[in-house]
UniProtKB/TrEMBL annotation, chains A, B, C, D:
Residues of the signal peptide: none
NCBIfam families: FormamaseFmdA
Pfam families registered for this protein in UniProt: FmdA_AmdA
Coiled-coil annotated residue ranges, if any: none
Organism expressing this protein natively: Discina gigas
Name by which UniProt lists this protein: Acetamidase/Formamidase
InterPro entries found in the cross-reference section: FmdA_AmdA, FormamaseFmdA
Length: 364, 364, 364, 364
């Protein structure tokens, strides 16, 4: 009668290359074979590798960031068959807990090299940089960013159900159009690309099909969510995800110990491998009933409280560093605000290169 | 020995046209004469009219919004001489309380007509609309938006010290350039304009000079703050403002009973006239000491707490209503998210036209 | 159509002796005449004097505390006729705001002389002491307790509906019995006492009857609430009060700027005169439906947040100052904990005599 | 260079009788041998059994509660040698995390039989009762108390450093005196008692000495803390404990998934076995510097937030169930308030026997 431990629905191997692990995948596609089955109402644990699949090491060199193979990232755990889920349903995802692995009590945040990934501030900080964060219970601290310590709000960066073939086709159409008419001097979308795809247990023709059609995992997409990086989707939160294929084919990955309110380096979070405890339920026919166009989120009850006087607010203005004004340009405003925050922090002995840290922190 | 009532440093007349009141002004300029003097350490009350100067009435017609004279808005109370303030100092503004007038326990929010002001969603909601909000202590409710009621986080939308002549010249240069090179089919900045200027007690040549040079009050500007519309600058908050002229020439106005996290109509707040209680202090030489480039803010300790399950989060994606994807376009993403929220709320009987309401609310 | 100011249902005169004001009373009795009428759903303001009826002055001497006439205290505003209220109903009291009078922006806290009132620690602090607190918006500070400043959680100490004759008789029976069998060397209850009673507009035989029968206002009583001193009954709170007589005869008084979690001097709050904004509603037949035996309270959403590290907790043990252990004696434990807190605070330069301050405070 | 897992400083065996495990003990005594050593600054895990040492089973019968051997409880993990700790220091205990064992994701709360332990309400609920709680991440729910589910605030009930011989002698003197002069018809203190003592690795004469002198673990004591049952000593909290013997001899046990603000059954918490992650530091000479008489506590930043309207408050009055009034009797008031809460909850289908649940909960 007594319950045993919470069942682990999917285990990963932290010492094995991600692409050799059958229950991971790095594309969104309706035909990726199920990795495991979960019954609504059951609490289960799901293990996840970090978003680089272990490419980043706990050392003091940023060479691994500089040379990170970005075609081999965002491996997701799943997809899971949620028993009874059908297209048109809403999958309610309750996160009960998220924890690092006991044997890997650390994570990292990184500034990516302008030539490999880059990021929001790569014009100003073009070199790769890395900070390792040690986890001590709810807290983290870093030997690379002294005197900073804060409680994490641990969460998954990516959650979603597989797209239907129709939705997948629409994604490809939309993103191809964006690429086709692009006038910016940068990559604006990554289209389906067979190289280095990993589709779980799929092999042969099926794997080829998934490689040819599968959507990349970097961008979030309205029809299913995906890479949302919402920092408050932590313990006790609920996420309402539309279901588009039989069994839902839910996947999860890209765990963070903490995430800023924006991403000022390519990697705006403290990235980690870890274990997430879920409980799922279904709202049958919920998409039509709620007229749902994209996921809805409700944060949990245990967000760290910092209290008054612990949070400084800087305001953004769309005047760039050359004194040129732009019209209501959020990007310019956010970037300039980052620089003002850096100036402020420099007074405390920090240099710009360290500021891949999350927005909210407090001193030891 | 016993203190009397808190001194009111500036009184307004709610029944008199704003431009006839000597202690109001509607431009930023170093030469606007002082309206009153305040000593650091002294708690004082300052009265403010609403941002339209009383043009909007408590009735059920939006004609006053449609016909609102936008050249006669943003009248600020001040400027105040802060005793001892010199260029290079930081003025620390503590907000002790903000209250509506007893005799005007109501405010308004408005959707501006596309032909008169417009706003973020004016392509979709081109008609003027208005909601009157009745204040009941910390709560507000509206006969125009039934079943909604929430506690306000009352705050001033505009606070700042006067620019120096050099800063003013830089503003004009910057904004003139923006206008000159504008390729958008809309007004991107309002340059100095003598029409309908009000410069307090200034008359004759001085008033003409202020009219010819004075900066408009709509945009916030990094060098002094101004129209920041930060919803958390409520009771107990502290704002650190750079001082650029002798005596600081601090001004305040545009009070809000509540404000959303963004402005989806021209008037994204519940606008009100009211009384703000301040206490000022000075950090001598603070601009250099803090290497301050723009204001810094610390919220107060009495923000309303809603608790888990009372806040829904919708995610933004930069795919527009025609299914066209844009590259990392915050504006598209925010607009589309607004529409999804509207669809969600329509299920509860609301129509789009009512959604000038702030983002956070809870049901009666 | 537009609303005017919120109606003030009852005005007091801060310069007139309390017992000369017709709309105050200092006993609980069903026959005290109505002072005013309030309609459910209407927001109204009610003015209240401080609990001593103005006996304590804003000066630096505690003589007024020492000589305070305790037979002339706890004057309540009311009773109010709540339209439609009948015995068996529940009166829902929503507090929308509580504010000091503009012309009296101060309050006091006092240690009462052991020979006149005394208090929880009067064996150790037998002398009268007083601290005046100046209000600055949501904050208060005192020239008598330097370096302390904190936001208030302003609330009424006393709210209740009049007892029915049967309930009043039960109170008298109960408290007479307590007095009769008392073995402690102290006053354990104050029975009805005609001296210095004030019964609003009642005169002659009616006043005599109320004097002979009326319950004293110091103790709270389960059947109606009364003097509850719950510090969280501030803005936005709801209180559910049983109604025992037609029209409810609701009364209120004893406003506090702030109150500790316990009362370690006779006067455990920062006492003030002020104005409370109410909105009432009725749950018809609610006493039976809820099987209500005594009031129920729900705190409001704007309690000050202090954040982690701002609150020290000391633990209580029932070992007294002579090293004698008592069995699970909360009173001993609480008293000893107070002393430990005093010792702790003395390290910061405070002396015991000042510690009539509320439990939660933070440094300037 | 990379850290491995956090070191587990003490492991327990959930399947072995507590008194056979060498690193547990059930008395406070300076001579209990060290179980392990911990260096200040090091994060370590410490495993703890539940307070009954596994006597309570995950089933639907309360017979185990009825027959619980109360002479074999409160086995503590330790004592730990904290390197460098000397009498006069303060040991700062930071709790970084507390978790149940993966293989034991449940806990219990129990009403003890009036003849075996009893409790605050044993006159009214004399029968043993038990509820099993299943843990799902931060949440718990019980098949024995339907429709209740809430996030835990997991914490240890007991923490303390060993007494010096002088302090131990004072405890015995104090408690012996309490027993000697007791006039109540109940056990008021348990004096040292050799039966069923467990003193870690101590044997022979040493064990006999500890049995003859060792203080029992049920009561908290001012000189060192011990059984404090403060529900907020959860993740991120800090506890300042006086050190009385070389090496501190710190012990911990009696973990709770959640605890009420009071203990209305003998076992007022959801009891569990689990793993606590600590980090220690020392304030050398802190007892004298802080003039510390007993422990001081600072709660952590991740207490669950419930928000307004989720917490009902009932008020206590010292009138007992027979209508007899008592003078300022907190015990009577608290007991009667419990009964009123029970009556309220009965309306939702609960019976009194289930109300061993914590005070704060929210509905599924």
């Amino acid at each position: 009668m007594a319950p045993g431990p919470i069942r682990t629905a999917l285990k990963v191997d932290l010492d094995k290359p991600a692409h050799e692990q059958e229950y991971l995948h790095n594309r969104w596609h309706p035909d990726i074979p199920f990795a495991a089955k979960i019954v609504p109402g059951e609490a289960v644990k799901v293990e996840c590798i970090d978003w680089t699949g272990g490419q980043i090491k706990n050392d003091d060199s940023a060479d691994d960031v500089k040379n990170c193979d970005l075609s081999r990232v965002h491996y997701l755990s799943g997809p899971f068959e949620i028993e009874g889920a059908e297209p048109g349903d809403i999958l309610v995802v309750e996160i009960q807990d998220v924890q690092p692995f006991d044997e890997r009590p650390w994570g990292f945040t990184a500034v990516f090299d302008k030539k490999n990934g880059g990021g929001f501030l790569d014009e100003h900080y073009p070199q790769a940089a890395k900070a390792i964060w040690d986890f001590e219970g709810i807290f983290c601290s870093s030997r690379h960013i002294p005197h900073v310590r804060f409680p994490g709000l641990i969460h998954p960066g990516i959650m979603g159900c597989a797209p239907s073939p129709e939705i997948l086709a629409e994604w490809t159409r939309r993103e191809s159009e964006l690429v086709e008419f692009n006038t910016l001097d940068r990559v604006v979308a990554n289209l389906p690309e067979p190289k280095n795809i990993h589709a779980g247990t799929a092999t042969g023709d099926l794997k080829a099909k998934i490689g040819a059609e599968g959507a990349r995992t970097i961008p979030g997409r309205p029809e299913h969510g995906g890479n949302c990086d919402i920092k408050n989707l932590s313990r006790g939160s609920k996420t309402y995800l539309p279901v588009h294929v039989p069994g839902a084919k839910f996947s999860v990955g890209d765990l963070h110990f903490s995430q800023g309110d924006g991403e000022i380096s390519f990697c705006g979070a403290i990235e980690m491998a870890g274990i997430i405890t879920f409980k799922f339920s279904l709202m049958k026919g919920g998409i039509e009933n709620l007229d749902m166009k994209s996921p809805i989120f409700i944060p949990g009850p245990v967000e760290p409280q910092f209290g008054p006087g612990r949070m400084l607010t800087f305001e953004g203005f769309s005047v760039d560093e050359n004194g040129k004004q732009h019209y209501m340009d959020v990007t310019v405003a956010y970037r300039q605000t980052c620089f003002r925050v850096f100036e402020y922090l420099k007074r405390y002995g920090y240099s710009g290169g360290e500021f891949s840290l999350p927005a909210s922190f407090y001193k030891k």
